[in-house]
Amino acid sequence: MKTIRAIQFGPMPRPRVLAKIYRREPADVVIESSSDTLLKNIGKVIKKYIDLMNKYGFHRFSDGAYWSDDILTPIARGIDNISINGLVRFYDNNFFYRQPVVEGKIKSKTPSGRVVANLVSRILKSADIDLSKNIDKISITVPGPFTFYYRSLISTSYYSNPYSFAKDYMYNVLLREIEYMEKQNFRWIDIHEPELAKRSLDIEENKAINLLKDFISVLNKEINIFIIMYFDLNLKILEALSRHIEENNVYIHIDPISKPEALYYRKRKQLKVTNLSIGVFDSRNTKLEKYIDISRKLRSVLNRVTADNEIYLSHNAPLEFLPEVIAYRKLRIISRYTDKLNLRLKNRE
Fold it and tell me: I need a surface site. Which of 4, 200, 263, 317 has the fewest CB within 10 A?
């Protein structure tokens, strides 16, 4: 039986010290223009987070996305023909983001792109940590093309459907970010795509997945791509992913907590992907999970979906919706449960 690993992804909750620093201007603007003293204060938060992730034994974890108020705004600021609108609710959450307005054909404002990569590098350097020991564990957080499209206001006829936008976004914007991240020795890229989990009627699965497959094929095989879907569970998309994307460096994250009944909608056909991440810890509920409940959720998923290579355990959606202390407690439970599960599997051999 393969080893099951614990992972973390996405933005972390913002502690009070950062809330005070960012209260007047957006986080990405503050970081780009901050003095060394202010960056050191931000770096202390990053150090605490990374030290705990290592202490808990997480296989990989995100950059924490402390560089932004939301995952859309920083990358939107670096794209031509996109302006930033007012605050809009992010799906069905008590959380808001600044809505991008697409006004024409998109491309990076600078030849090198690297808006997110610059922010991440700047903020990590401010933390008193040994990056050489952590760089291969840290994942970079970016919005996926379909989530970006449907969370934006499209005020141009140039993009009459999500597929033409997705292609320009991936090759004119995202590819440049990833190439620069690779030069900085990052090896994990998290493409957040809650929209793929929710848009089963509007998105043609094969078109969407083929676009992602073609894009992934041009990337360096040493870069690990996480396609992270949450707020819903869409088995049609998962089937399309399992049929078309078989690369060993691609990982699929699913959220069975937001829609557990989806596991029983269709014929009980076993779906198999190459690498699977399962969100069995609820990031939108402060209740701390018990091991027996986690095991029940995990069994219900593995009865329908499994993986050829890696299986990871994680929270179902980003942890930023929780109080910081609860988020860290849940991460500790993820770590302990994974260790306990691996010990049980080893004893069965």
Answer: 200
- Does 15 fall in a domain? yes
Who wins on pLDDT, 204 or 140?
Answer: 140
- Relative to beta strand 224-228, strand 311-315 is unpaired
Non-local (6+) Cβ contacts of 230 within 8 A are: 194, 197, 253, 255, 258, 279, 316, 317, 318
Q: Is residue 204 part of a domain?
A: yes
Instruction: Please state, in angstroms and rounded to a whole number, the distance separating the CA atoms of residues 340 and 334.
Output: 10
Buried-exposed string 159-175: b where 16+ CB fall within 10 A, e elsewhere: beebbebbebbbebbbb
Quote the domain boundaries for residue 158: 4-273+291-348
Q: Centre a 10 Å sphere on the Cβ of residue 112 and count the other Cβ atoms it contains.
A: 12
Q: How far is CA 23 from CA 49, 296, 321, in A?
A: 21, 42, 18
Overall domain count for the chain: 1
- Residue pair 5/251 in contact by the 8 Å Cβ criterion: no
> Is 153 inside a domain boundary?
yes
| pLDDT > 60? residue 223 | yes
Q: Which of 6-10, 21-25, 272-276 has the lowest mean pLDDT?
A: 21-25
Q: What is the CATH number of the domain that holds 52?
A: 3.20.20.210
Contacts 24+ apart (CB under 8 A), 46-49: 46/123, 46/124, 46/126, 46/127, 46/129, 47/127, 47/128, 47/129, 49/12
Cβ 185 vs Cβ 144: under 8 Å: no
Cβ 127 vs Cβ 43: under 8 Å: yes
In a domain, 284, yes or no: no
SS3 category, 106 = strand
pTM of the model: 0.93
What is the 8-class DSSP label of residue 7?
Answer: B
pLDDT at 159 over 90: yes
Q: Of the given ranges (58-67, 75-84, 203-212, 299-308), which has the lowest mean pLDDT?
A: 203-212
pLDDT (average), residues 312-338: 96
Q: How far is CA 87 from the centre of its chain?
A: 21
